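Duplicate of #3305? Posting structure anyway:
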């Protein structure tokens, strides 16, 4: 049994990057995990039974919300089994997707609380420049619109993620976001990570000032009941509990990833002790909010 059982972890929400493969090649991606695939996990993912064990260990350790990410998680044949297991164990469930493979239906809605769609641009040229394409084709504005509308129809909570880069920082996405009416819109500054997207030499990186201009151009959509959550590079550093496809916690505080041992080998508490997490930064970036599950207490956000 994990030695941390019964104690709430410092950060209650965890991102499990369960699937290294992806059907897109985004140039800014900070979750490629090629190092994991070449050095640790040749398939780029655990077996279904191992992944289910990971979910159980995270729930047992006290995590209240789990976000399944990739790569592209909808490539995983047993994703629905993992979501169902997390839901059954009382966790708030979320999936981050590029939107190309999602089939939203009532069975998914019965176990999934949040669907997070990555929408960085509505321009086919910009999306192509970013590498956000499948078989050379980007999703169209209509594709994104149909997906968002289908999410609303099922009652799953919609969140949109936008990564601000050199090729899209000048855009205005406000009319589209207002029309799609997500519960939350997270605006992320492209985060250079050595060994993932080339680090500080990545040509898609934007300055703090350019990122702030994008935020200021869009912050007013909050008047429409949309929670706008900007995160610059500093806010994203050390403020997430994250597992890689091999079930290792990792942090990004040194501009590259530092990995723990696998929780399947040493347990959650021991692995967490091998990485750096900052609860104050987690709270200050709005990491804990009303996730929409009335059975979970909203924890007071400490000052500082």
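Output from current build:
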């Amino acid at each position: 049994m994990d030695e941390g059982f019964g104690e709430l972890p410092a950060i209650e929400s965890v991102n499990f990057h369960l699937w290294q493969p992806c059907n897109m090649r985004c140039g800014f991606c900070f979750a490629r995990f090629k190092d994991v695939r070449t050095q640790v996990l040749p398939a780029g993912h655990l077996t279904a039974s191992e992944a289910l064990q990971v979910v159980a260990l995270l729930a047992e350790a006290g995590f209240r919300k789990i976000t399944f990410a990739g790569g592209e998680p909808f490539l995983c044949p047993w994703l629905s089994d993992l979501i169902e297991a997390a839901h059954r164990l009382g966790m708030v469930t979320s999936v981050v997707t590029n939107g190309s493979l999602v089939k939203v239906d009532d069975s998914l809605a019965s176990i999934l609380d949040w669907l997070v769609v990555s929408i960085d641009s509505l321009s086919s040229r910009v999306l192509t420049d970013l590498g956000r394409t499948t078989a050379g084709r980007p999703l169209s504005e209509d594709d994104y619109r149909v997906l968002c509308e289908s999410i609303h129809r099922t009652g799953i909570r919609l969140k949109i993620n936008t990564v601000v880069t050199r090729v899209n920082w000048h855009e205005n996405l406000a009319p589209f976001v207002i029309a799609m009416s997500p519960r939350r819109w997270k605006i992320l500054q492209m985060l250079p990570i050595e060994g993932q997207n080339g680090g500080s030499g990545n040509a898609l990186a934007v300055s703090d000032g350019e990122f702030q201009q994008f935020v200021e151009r869009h912050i007013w959509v909050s008047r429409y009941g949309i929670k706008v959550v900007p995160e610059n590079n500093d806010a994203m550093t050390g403020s997430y509990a994250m597992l890689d496809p091999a079930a290792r916690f990792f942090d990004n505080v040194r501009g590259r990833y530092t990995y723990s041992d696998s929780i399947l080998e040493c347990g959650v508490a021991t692995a967490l002790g091998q990485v750096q997490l900052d609860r104050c930064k987690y709270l200050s970036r709005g990491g804990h909010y009303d996730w929409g599950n009335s059975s979970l207490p909203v924890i007071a956000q400490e000052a500082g």
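Confirmed duplicate; merging threads. The CA atoms of residues 85 and 283 lie 27 Å apart. Residues 141-154 form the longest helix (14 residues).
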